Automatic annotation (TrEMBL):
PANTHER family: MERCURIC REDUCTASE (PTHR43014), NAD(P)H DEHYDROGENASE (QUINONE) (PTHR43014:SF1). Coiled coil: none annotated. It holds the Pfam family Pyr_redox_dim. This is NAD(P)H-quinone dehydrogenase. NCBIfam families: PRK07845.1. Residues 10-342 form the FAD/NAD(P)-binding domain.
Amino acid sequence: MADIFERKQRIAVLGGGPGGYEAALAGAQLGAEVTIVERAGVGGSAVLTDVVPSKTLISTAEAANAIGEAADLGVQFSIRGESGRAVRPDVTVNLAAVNARLLGLARQQSEDMKANLIKAGVRLITGDGRLDGPQKIVVSAGKGKAAKDFDEVEADTIVVAVGSSPRVLPTAQPDGERILTWKQLYQLDTTPERLIVVGSGVTGAEFASAYHALGSEVTLISSRDQVLPGEDADAAAVIEDVFRRRGMHVLAKSRAQSVERTEDGVIATLADGRTVEGTHCLLAVGAIPNTADLGLEEAGIQLSDGGYIRVNRVSRTSMPSVYAVGDCSGVLPLASVASMQGRTAVFHAMGDAVNPIELRNVTSNIFTQPEIATVGWSQKQIEEGIAQGEIYKLPLSSNPRAKMMGIRDGFVKLFARTGSGTVIGGVVVAPKASELILPIALAVEHRLTVDELAGAFSVYPSLSGSVTDAARAMHIVR
């Protein structure tokens, strides 16, 4: 086994996002000669224009929302007016400062990741890359110019990690000023007065939630019966109820036909002829993989009809020397999945032991207010008979810590295998659900029973106590 780690294998990574970054570190850890080709910056769009900036924006929105709701906890903000009486000030957001901060954080994260790669001995090349066969990447500096000194990278293994880009509509073309994709939002200097969000999936719901908290009047156009289609129905219902209660306009069963710019804003025309006017419009209608014009098919790599690279459970493509990870592989568009794919791909390529990714064990989170976190089998799959399980739902309103914090919305839901009581999934709707889902994820990953989960000591009072309370309620009598 030792000779595997002593072999000087050449690995070339096309794209420096989460998947490419982890692939490069894994290769360096196992002693390979690793090169990354990245055109924008280490971290890719996930760090520079997507996950890091969007979640930073959402953190600011959470702070603004907390200030607005502080009165419910007995905290009041006031200033002295000219008459000497206390006057409640308005909560305002300096969006230019917010965007400057989040873009600065994104650049810093990118630089930190770059430093980690350099420390690990990874060679970085800035430029546009494309495959020239299954074992070579040709690099240009843009507009056909060859990148100085590094116009070709030959490798034993290539990892393609080129990500995806926002999908746009032929009848709704972004201009970067009034009609925007989520990558263009961070150029705004002021909070949109009236923001139209087209698309009620994860991205649309997150930004609608954030900008409403930042002070925008938001209209969310959803083509489905409910926001967040495909998510846990109970969780989506909570989010939609919160949206409406806080004053957001949610248009269900309403498909946007077109979006056009007007003299001082935008107008969205729906399929039924209705129109919605706003000052700005965010297009959140999905993403497309960045796989065009990369020489993939010429290198013998199979693509799906949607342009995604076909991979197996260790991220290997139809060419044995080429792997694909992240959004371009069409698996799950999550940074955590891309990172795991990157490590798995390189470990497999270098002969190390690997466990194929089990997608049912992947934890995901939607950063609305409150958040939605899920793992494992879903309630819909249980109800359809795909999985055999029992369901238990515990509202957060019964949790003592939630009462202290003024939390009214949310729940913990557990799914356990019928008979054995093994935890097979769960849903958490709560502030910071992304943190609360971990014990359920560990239970799913390690096949713990509800009794074993209930046996852990949770802090009293704590929101995580609802996890053990729910597990205790599902006790299996022996």
